[in-house]
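Students often ask why we bother encoding 3D structure as a string. The short answer is that it lets us treat folding as translation between two languages. Here is a chain of 345 residues written in the first language.
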Amino acid sequence: MRLARLLVLIALLLAPLPALADARPIPIKVVVLTAFEVGADTGDRPGEFQAWVERYPLTETMTVPGIVRPVRLSKDGVLGVVMGEWGRARGSIASLVADPRFDLTKAYWIMAGIAGVDPRAGSIGSAAWADWVVDGDPLFELDDREAPADWPWGLYAFGADAPGKKGRADDFSGMVWRLDPGLVRWAYGLTKDISLPDNPQLAADRAKFSTEAAAQTPPRVFVGTSLASVRFWHGYRRTEWARAWVKTWTDDQGTFAMSAGEEQAILDTLTVNAPGGRVDPRRVLVLRTASNYTREGDGEPQPVRFAPGGAEAGFEAAWRVGSPVVRALVAGWPQYADHLPQAAP
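And here it is in the second language, the structure alphabet:
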């Protein structure tokens, strides 16, 4: 009887061990972040996520509390996430970082989604790796018609007394993040010669920007600054504001290229979580592909109009440019787990 009780006790002590083994966090090599998907993850009209699910592929599905859509995993350590657009992205990233099932300590983060392109920087269908990310949200706003006569617009930074001054936003946002220059150059060098989708629809839209040479070029891969805000702004004047806002916050080092809505949430959330060692914000890449221009064509009315075929071209460009970088990180994991890939200036 005593021996039987001893065996039962030993069995009870050993029983949790398999559960503990199963509970070890999943090591993640790359997190692919998208903002939205049009319908289902597979088999219908594609949005930002579908190509990653079907072509990479991302075969396993998991539910993360705080993220609306299930996340997806590949067999080689890639995690795909539909964050939600604009303000919802911040909560999704926070939920993912807090989930104990994932080991994100060495993960690279790649935002791959569509955006508006400044016609001075490029054309629709183009892809831009961000060198800087600037937050366009924390600001004071006056109706432009009520702003002082010598102001270019009624938007200016917290802690400032006029446009063109940096101000401060300590309690709101990091405001400006320079992505690791060597990592950005490496990603750009790997993808700069990739052929991007083009068609007569995109060419017809390019022709409307006779004053901007970059807007008339076929789609290409380049490097430029991403300005992100939860306000969907548009038009001549706001494009001029975006150029100036980027120059102000980057101390004239960044050039506005893409208008987006989520990367400020990604960078800010990862940065505030970095001191605990759970994530490394140096390992962030932002890839934006242009589905529309930030203003309408020369001489056209400025209410928002999305160019036919622009979104589809942007979705495809994000996959074509983003996937080689993801595959390279995974293939080089013995080196890149501990050392960021770098390219010389």
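Translate back mentally: The longest strand covers residues 108-117. Keep this in mind for the problem set.
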